[in-house]
């Protein structure tokens, strides 16, 4: 049989030979959406010939402003970040187009095929707009697809994907139609913009916050649970949108699908124990790192060295290789006769890490100055 050379394949392409390359409908729709945005934005984004665009300092200041929303932190994303994220979406689309073309020609290398597996699925808002924990959920296949939609008047809103590892719930919420879904001014929202989010589990009201994820979507997250959520469960979500009289209500199915490593009562340094801290357990999942501890009651403070709940905080955690894991959330109880329970959530720890370092910042040391106490916790091998 005559060898099938690349030149002959190219000749067949030039002659109009049809290639049987099946592109999923969802991918086609997402690619069309991205390319449409590129075409629409190109004329306005190009500076006039021979001129250099000066940075808009006033606009930049407005872009980094933070406003407290009704249901939690309501962060404004700087314009530069929006451009970077748009570029990321375009890059993913380009890589997929290149991969499909090479697959059609039939000479995709094994190295390229392997690299393609690491590219996030196009349209994955968790990958493009989420923090490291959300990105890790996508990489580990821990995103739960859901299909919950409601239409009121001319407005349709859908909850499409869910992440839950036992510590934090994150929802991907999309609104159809023109204009931004995320409101940058809750005092004067435009029609169609999201103005509030409420979430419930049974009789417990949760405390969600939300961030923009492209023009028509937001990521809603919550991590402050008064009691454990029994998996699986139904999460009640209510969204209020400017210009729509009635709120949108959803019953979202949620379940835990992330394995965890639990470290009970790790060894603590005396400097931390003497200040009244007791670390109860640390839970490591592919999505978050959770630290549970409590402050001993004042009645047990015979040496008058215990820390009040208002006189400390925690810094970003690190591992033995120096990687940094920012804080994602947490909560703390006020001081009571039985002490004070505390809870912090950090980004997921790298699987190669063999130790986790926690940093407790305490006000008013022996010399009256604040100082930091480090606690190192050995981690089991998680690379299997």
From TrEMBL:
<feature type="domain" description="DUF4179">
    <location>
        <begin position="85"/>
        <end position="171"/>
    </location>
</feature>
<dbReference type="InterPro" id="IPR040680">
    <property type="entry name" value="DUF5643"/>
</dbReference>
<dbReference type="Pfam" id="PF18705">
    <property type="entry name" value="DUF5643"/>
</dbReference>
<dbReference type="InterPro" id="IPR025436">
    <property type="entry name" value="DUF4179"/>
</dbReference>
<protein>
    <submittedName>
        <fullName>DUF4179 domain-containing protein</fullName>
    </submittedName>
</protein>
<keyword id="KW-1133">Transmembrane helix</keyword>
<feature type="domain" description="DUF5643">
    <location>
        <begin position="269"/>
        <end position="370"/>
    </location>
</feature>
<keyword id="KW-0472">Membrane</keyword>
<dbReference type="Pfam" id="PF13786">
    <property type="entry name" value="DUF4179"/>
</dbReference>
<feature type="transmembrane region" description="Helical">
    <location>
        <begin position="87"/>
        <end position="108"/>
    </location>
</feature>
<keyword id="KW-0812">Transmembrane</keyword>
């Amino acid at each position: 049989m005559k060898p099938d050379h690349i030149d002959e394949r190219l000749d067949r392409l030039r002659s109009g030979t049809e290639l049987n390359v099946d592109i999923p409908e969802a991918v086609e729709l997402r690619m069309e959406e991205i390319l449409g945005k590129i075409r629409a934005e190109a004329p306005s984004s190009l500076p006039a010939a021979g001129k250099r665009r000066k940075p808009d300092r006033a606009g930049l200041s407005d872009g980094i402003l933070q406003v407290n929303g009704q249901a939690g932190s309501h962060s404004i994303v700087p314009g530069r970040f929006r451009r970077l994220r748009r570029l990321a979406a375009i890059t993913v689309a380009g890589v997929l187009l290149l991969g499909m073309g090479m697959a059609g020609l039939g000479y995709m290398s094994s190295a390229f095929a392997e690299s393609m597996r690491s590219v996030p699925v196009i349209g994955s808002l968790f990958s493009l707009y989420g923090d490291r924990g959300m990105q890790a959920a996508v990489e580990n296949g821990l995103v739960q697809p859901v299909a919950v939609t409601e239409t009121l008047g001319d407005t349709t809103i859908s909850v499409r994907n869910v992440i839950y590892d036992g510590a934090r719930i994150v929802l991907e919420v999309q609104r159809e139609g023109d204009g931004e879904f995320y409101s940058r001014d809750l005092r004067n929202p435009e029609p169609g913009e999201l103005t509030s989010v409420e979430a419930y589990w049974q009789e417990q009201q949760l405390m969600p916050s939300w961030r923009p994820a492209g023009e028509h979507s937001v990521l809603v997250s919550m991590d402050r649970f008064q009691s454990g959520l029994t998996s699986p469960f139904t999460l009640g979500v209510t969204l209020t949108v400017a210009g729509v009289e009635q709120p949108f209500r959803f019953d979202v199915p949620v379940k835990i699908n992330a394995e965890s490593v639990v470290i009970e009562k790790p060894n603590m340094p005396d400097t931390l124990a003497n200040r009244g801290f007791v670390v109860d357990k640390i839970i490591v999942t592919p999505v978050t790192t959770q630290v549970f501890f409590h402050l001993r009651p004042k009645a047990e403070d015979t040496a008058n060295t215990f820390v009040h709940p208002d006189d400390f905080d925690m810094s970003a955690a690190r591992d033995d290789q120096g990687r940094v894991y920012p804080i994602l959330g947490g909560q703390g109880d006020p001081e009571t006769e039985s002490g004070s329970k505390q809870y912090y959530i950090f980004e997921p720890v790298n699987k190669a890490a063999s130790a986790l370092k926690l940093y407790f910042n305490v006000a008013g040391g022996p010399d009256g100055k604040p100082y930091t106490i480090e606690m190192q916790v050995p981690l089991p091998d998680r690379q299997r």
